[in-house]
Design brief:
Number of strands: 3
Helix content: 25-40%
Largest sheet: 3 strands, antiparallel
Strand content: 5-15%
Distance between the termini: 42 Å
Structural class: alpha+beta
Number of domains: 1
Radius of gyration: 15 Å
Strand order of the largest sheet: 1-3-2
């Protein structure tokens, strides 16, 4: 099935905050385990998303403090 451009699927995971909650959970788990940073492999199209959530572009990965 297809959606019209601009239409939203109420069952979709995008734009519901799921990704942000997963990042916060990863930060919490990492912090509790004693880590200071987390890293992600971010495709070109997702780098701005991670940057808005505090990740910085490194040589291979984007990293963020777990504070």
């Amino acid at each position: 099935p297809a959606l019209a451009i601009g239409a939203e699927d109420p069952d979709a995971a995008q734009h519901t905050g799921l990704g942000s909650r997963l990042i916060e959970a990863a930060r919490r788990i990492s912090r509790e385990a004693g880590f200071r940073q987390i890293s992600v492999i971010a495709a070109t199209g997702t780098r701005a998303y991670y940057a808005r959530r505090g990740f910085r572009q490194g040589e291979l990965y984007m990293t963020a403090d777990v504070k």
